[in-house]
Amino acid sequence: MNAWAAWGGMAGLGAGAGLWLLWAAARARRPSLVERLEPYLRPRAATSALLHDGDRPRTGPFGLLVELVALPAVAARLERLGSPADALRRRLDRAGADETVEHFRARQLTWTVLGLAAGLGAAILLAWTRPTPGIVLAAVVVLSGGVGYVACDQALGWAVRRREERMLAEFPTVADLLALAVAAGEGPAAALDRVACGTTGELSRELTRVVRAVRAGAAVPDALTAMSARTGCVPLSRFADAVAVALERGTPLAGVLQAQAQDVREAGRRVLMESGGRREIAMLVPVVFLILPVTVMFAVFPSLAALRVGF
């Protein structure tokens, strides 16, 4: 009986999701009066085409689901469950993701639906094998959906940390190349352009955006400050502040860049030493709880065997 109830719940859930998608699609196709008049009454802010990559996807593989998530009512409900749109936009920029907030919400919703489907399958299998209370089956389904929702957010956090680690690893080399270019007689903008075109990596992508902003009319210190705000890395923030101060006061820029690269190398060396110390302590766990008891057993067992034979 529980299995038939689970199959009925699955069918009802699929039918409800299908009807909701049809209703939302019909509502999305019908623009409101405000949306029809907005292009004429509220013009969009004009920006230079140099600031755009040109390859940012609009909807990705989700298509209609992104448009449904972009609806005000759906977006407001998803914001209550997760982080606000501004904070999520900053996290996407820090992760270097070429997707919009609605695209990430659609992916998060997809992961949640997949988690619910996996939980529903587990609940059906559990109800088929043994009698299980309905509240336990419902808890399994809800927990599986929550795990899918949280896993998508955690995946974004892991992407942010990995990208920041790669940028910090690339920063000393990029700073040395900038110092060499400036020492050879090139200006700050030309040095940034040369290094961005001659290198690859996450930091090179950010330097390319800085070069686009400079070509669009922004000052080099302002473009570097915007880069540090996008990335959220403390060394890059110090680098942007040092370059801005050097350009304002006329300090030799090559020395400043070399000093920044040396500071980042020293910070990386300290982090490596701290990580080695933590791993050294963690290595004591298998030694104390696995290797040492086995060694004691090998040392004590012959004596115990000899005493038993003597008695």
Automatic annotation (TrEMBL):
Assigned keywords, A-Z: Cell membrane, Membrane, Transmembrane, Transmembrane helix
Q: Does the keyword Membrane apply?
A: yes
Keyword Membrane assigned to the entry: answer is yes
Annotated membrane topology is:
Multi-pass membrane protein
| InterPro entries in the cross-refs | T2SS_GspF_dom (IPR018076)
The principal localisation class reads: membrane
Q: Which domain of life is it from?
A: Bacteria
Q: Where is the Type II secretion system protein GspF domain?
A: 175-299
- Sorted alphabetically, which PANTHER family does this protein's record hold? INTEGRAL MEMBRANE PROTEIN-RELATED, PILUS ASSEMBLE PROTEIN
Task: Fetch the Pfam families from UniProt.
Answer: T2SSF (PF00482)
* Subcellular location field: Cell membrane
Would you tell me the protein name for this molecule?
A: Type II secretion system F family protein
Transmembrane domains' residue ranges: 6-26, 109-129, 135-160, 281-301
